[in-house]
Amino acid sequence: MRGKFIAGNWKMANGPIMAKDYMLRFADLFFKSENAIKSVKNERLKIAIFPPSISLSDINYEKVKTGLPIVLGAQNMHWEKNGAYTGEISAQMLIEAGCSHVIIGHSERRTLFNETNEILNKKIASAIEEDLTIVFCVGEHLEERESKETYAVIREQFLEGLRGIKTSQFSKKIIIAYEPIWAIGSGITANSCDAQNVCSFIRELISESFGENEGSKSIILYGGSVKSNNTKSFLCEKDIDGVLVGGASVSPDSFFDIIKTSI
Length: 263
Ligand code: PGA
Known about the structure:
Blueprint: E1 4-9, H1 16-31, H2 34-41, E2 45-50, H3 56-66, E3 71-74, H4 91-96, E4 101-104, H5 107-112, H6 117-129, E5 133-138, H7 142-146, H8 150-161, H9 167-170, E6 174-178, H10 192-210, H11 212-217, E7 220-223, H12 231-235, E8 242-245, H13 252-261
Helix pairs in contact: 1-3, 8-10
Residues 9, 179, 184-185, 223-226, 244-248 line the site of 2-phosphoglycolic acid (PGA).
């Protein structure tokens, strides 16, 4: 059975000082909740935090110190191992900072930083090589949705982003997050039924490319204006295994409210 995966993408919020306070408050909330402790222990729930890179080491330090059983990931990485790439961070460096996961292809990286499917494909290959688990984001613009191109866009992002990836590499290493761009940070969520239809389509794409077995066991997330009052509606859907939360994950209390509604 697929467990629930609840991920917080802080984006450019919570630098090292705030991150430390966050972890202490989050640890307090978590260790007071028997349900949360039990769900993580039984592998029915995985909690992941994706802070800005500059906060990773501090978060990892607090994670070890408090014993918080969370997954730590980065929001981005470069595909090369090292070299003259000012301002960039490699997969190996993320591992050294305590990461096991990385987000690749977030729509803000695609649209604001011009990351193409080809670039994302190189990043995915490099992350796999270093054994990082990838949260690979796909999603359509509003105009694409209105002109009924959602499925074609998702198919193209999926196939091009994962070009050349073998089943053995995909297995357990790639989580797909469906994030319709018009729902991100807008306060407008997709309705859970529409989100389910796209996530079911993604599951079919996984089966077509990597076999039925991968299709049935892969984790698929929904993201876009997720809050504690709408989380349940998404998690009730058959093909949605978790949520990728932006704004509502920046405070430990609102992120923990989302976790509570998912257990
Ligand atoms: P949001 O962001 O929850 O603030 O809409 C989601 C995301 O970008 O992952």
